[in-house]
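[Solved] Which block belongs to which protein?

Original post:
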Amino acid sequence: MSGIVWSEGKAIPLQGKGPVVQLVRTLACHARGRGFESRPDRSEMNLTPEAAAKRISELIAEISEHDYRYYVLAQPTLSDSEYDRLVQELRSLEERFPELRRADSPTQRVGGTVTKEFPVVAHRRPMLSLDNAYTIEELRDFEKRLTRLLPDASLSYIAQLKIDGVAVSLHYKDGIFIQGLTRGDGLQGDDITPNLRTVRDIPLRLRGKAPSYLEVRGEVYMLRSEFNRINKEREELGETPFMNPRNATAGSLKLQDSSQVAQRRLKFLAYFADGEGLPDYDHEIMALLAQWGFHVVETGGPFSMNEVEGFIERWAKSKATLPYDIDGVVIKVNNRALQARFGATAKAPRWAIAFKYQPEQAITELQKITYQVGRTGYITPVAELKPVKLAGTIVKRASLYNYDEIERLNLHLPDVVVVEKSGEIIPKVIRTLPERRPSTAQPADPPQTCPECGTPLIRPEGEVGRYCPNYKHCPPQVIGRLEHFVSRKAMNIQSLGEKILRKLYEKGLVKRFSDLYALKPEILTNIEGFAEKMPHKIVQNIQASKSVPYPRVLYALGIRHVGETVAQKLAEAFPTIGSLYEASEEAIAKVYTIGSVIARSVYTYLHDKENWEEIQRLRSIGLQFSALSAARPSAGLPLSGKRLLVSGTFEGVSRDSLIAYIQAHGGIYASSISKNLDYLVVGENAGPSKLEKARRLGIKVLSLPELEGLVGKPVRE
């Protein structure tokens, strides 16, 4: 790492990449006004393309090594801040010398590519499915068939966990990742290369020496913890939850915006490789894949068939300890020459088979179906079961997801059903047993009215879910929206949990958001269950929430489909609630990543008379419905009259805090890049299109330290 620090008119060169140099450069960036000025590498006039290319190669190698240690070995050797500085230096060089940007650059992982259609590409060799075995006896029959086909063959096997994910094929040329395909129909698949680049377990450049051309196959999957996080977010936005991690993974890989795929934190495990000069045995190839930088699927062998059975039994007992789902074990003949001699049928190779674990199931009675009402009015059907022991626990209820699932299962009331635990965690109804169904049973009809308030339900066009439209007065919706309003990422009103909000609602003290701001300590003191000092603390927290910035207030309103990111996009495009109210549905839909469905939801919400009156009440109370507070004059401030836009992320500084910092010092936060923009403030993962447009229009690009230099004080959270 190199750079120059200027002190009292003298240039002091900095060379190297040690922590002392990093510290000096960081201190120099913040020492403006004290006789020092920092000049980052990217502004050095004598940096030639050759020197830049050399430094880019060094950075890519160093960052890739740290990625390998972090994501594959789980042995990080660099702090997050040091890692971020390396990535930012690389990004800066690539921005200055775009012709030097490489396909294996770590900056290409963040996504941003929008793909309207995925090209269909033929596989170099078919991605065949596998025949299945469900018992040990069927596995032994598999070996008998192999012995009959090649009586002289000496057979050994490898056994691999069968990940319940989405199979993909990765192609590398001279060690560089060039293309990734879905399995498709086995003969051809969709080219989803931009989306697969965002998967951190997939190396963009192989470590060490690799064949000039290599194909690697494996499974993209999702951790259960990530699946639960995504489903929670979807439920908060009123969207239908995914049924299982595999379903969520498949949906993620088909998203058109690769930056959204990056947010899903998908994982990859390799199980196969094909290329020139590979070893003759699969267990050796798996070791090579690990050396090249892949996470490889859990593999045992070479084994005899008796040892394969031991592997299967061992993982049958241990699979619940894994953080992801598996549905069996794949058994393969280890010798590649023998694989070629055994060949394949039209559908499956003869030399491999999948032993499928049977999830533990139980038969019980479906006694009734109840319907839960979420914050957005989404109706979730729940199967109420006769208690039954399953996988070590007593199961009384199981999710049915939506009414389409009820129809698919052909559920009756009462009924006899088979239940199992999905991923050893979530109970679900698998099928019915019509032969054991009581003769008096009737089909389970969909609910026509809300189980909580009696309002007729609606089913929006193109959606599988049913909703209660009475979001203003349906008790669970009101309480749920109040919970959302006070949550940490919204208004952040601490000490107001679901139980307290329910009490306040039931006593008629809080029916809408604005009612919270009328609460007094003496009112809360009379409610049972409050500690002595809690009423004063709650009121204090409520009043403190008035300083929460505009994007979070938008998010707190609980508009259907409007999450944190969408709220931020809306606030950037329409810096006051008035401008958002005046915007047409079409204008809202044109905001990047918003679209017609979200636009319709926002427009409908704001143009509802009661909703708009509530917003005006909150506005008069003092909540922030503008990106620039009218109460604070901007004349004479450092950024007075200047229009600024932020792109990217900044270590230790939230976007809300940075926007508030700009506005506090007289700046006007712009909704987009135009010729009227004065500054574009860029951080990590800044949008390439924004940077390109800014350069084309001659807009000055600032780093965070440069912005702080203009203002004369650092950003404070």
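(Second protein starts here: sequence line, then its structure tokens.)
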Amino acid sequence: MLRRMSCSPRRFALVLSLASLLLLGCGRATTPGSGAKPPGAASPWKGKAARGVHDAELAALARAHWQWRMQNAPVWATTLGDRRYDDKLGDGSWRAAEARQKERLALLARARALLPRAPRFAHARDRATLALLVGELEAQAGAHRCKMPLWDVDPRGNPLTQFNGLPRMHSVKSAEHARTLEARYRLVPAAIRREIADLRHGLQQGLVANAESVRRVIAMLRSELAKPIARWALLTTPKRRARLDDAGRARLVVALEPIVAGPIRDALRAYLALLEKEILPAARRGKAPPGLSGLAAKLPGCYAARIRLFTGLPLAAAELHATGKREVARIDAAMQALGKKLFGLDDRAAVLHKLRSDPKLSFDSAAAVEAKAKSALARARARIAKFFGRLPKADCVVTRIPDYEAKFTTVAYYSRPYADGKPGEYFINVSEPTTRPRYEAEALAYHEAIPGHHLQIAIAQELTEMPAFRRYSGNSAFVEGWGLYAESLADEMGLYSGDLDRLGMLSYDAWRATRLVVDTGLHAMGWSRKQAIDYMTAHSALASNNISNEVDRYIVWPGQALSYKVGQLEIKRLRADARHKLGARFSLPAFHDAVLGGGAVSLPVLRQRVAAYLAASR
């Protein structure tokens, strides 16, 4: 999984790994205008925003669209090396989101006006670029109807996780960078107060989160607020990461500490009080469905829009549910066969119980979790040249998930390389190591790092012949589909240590298949949280704490869990078709280069790219 992507733009820290794929998609982001430097300020993206675009009108649109995104996402802009907006945080309010929707629709109208001319474009890349722009803007415009800033309370995307990530994304290499980081810290309390106002406004409309998600955020906030300020990530991260001399770092921390200890802590306390006294008492609980099913009457068409947002396709929930069940049945049989070979057990439930209950199959320390991740990454790095023609220049490293979020988040995620030289990071959860199965560790590393997310995202960022949005944005089904495809590709690459690790690979495939069933169940069919947990427990070997965290993730992030299987199945289908049509001329490295060589495209555009590869290969 990428760095906890979400379309709730108040989670700007979470979205950056997928290069702001959905940052502007359905609510909290940042508004243009107030964050801009004077018109004379030079943009580092001049000439790059429309790189490789030949049609003049399309190039002008690509530049306007990219500038709009930079202004609307100033922190993302910082990580990309555009530091014109370094002293801005942005307005993540619902009012600002409504203004952004008008701007988005104006851009969409310009893009649609070019469609009649598209067949006559001289370059195929221009046709693909226009299709991607239209698809992205349409999907984001549709998702606006979900009004998530008015009711969404998420353990993965709340003021604490959001702003604790700010000093990681705002690199400090000079006194000016230190000044602008301080300016951003001063804007945090107002941003939190706007979120409080939005949630109150949503409550008045009968829009409210589910109780379990609210309880988890409350627990997270209480834990952080109980810690001494000196241990807060808002202070420890700048102290550790600022590229200043000792005196410069000391001055920075001295400047930031009163802001954190005063206005920011007060704002977090106010947010906690809101959740405890107003939101939790009204939150959906008991027989009320925790997913979008419980809000369907107030948010008509929301889940369909979320499906489109994350898959790029107009798929029906019932169709996805059925696909998930077919995939679960297929993987169940494979797991049972391998379980019999390994353990001599004929019953799938017995195999799953063995995997969950045998302490020898889990880690015994945080250090062991980290060491396994590093060894898997090293093994993959040594093998990729035989399976890919194009390789990324950026490195990938293993990093532990911070303690403040480890208990409430998933097993791992990936954070992309930044323009300041930060490498790609494979974040691993080392909390409660005895609940972290050894047999899952390798599949996890191959998904999140190499040949998965790091390979795909770092390559995309280095496609300097592409317009900027194709390098740093992308379709979720492509990105997560590639990550899941990479898990089985790793077996072909000879990366798994043995059958036990392959069983972990199957369990992870089952995990993503159950997501199709569970996500549609929660958001279209009225499933309860317990139904979702029970289904995942019956069909995957995930530990119980991971399953509960995952289900809570799906509840607050409707549609995102669909990306994995939808994308994986399409990539596998295209590969099988290419192998069939090319026969002995089929080259796996060439196929991979065709898939990855256009950035994280939509699945329809991916089909066109593979068709072009087939034509050239013939």
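Accepted answer:
You had them paired correctly. Confirming on the second one: Residues 9-209+211-283 form one domain.
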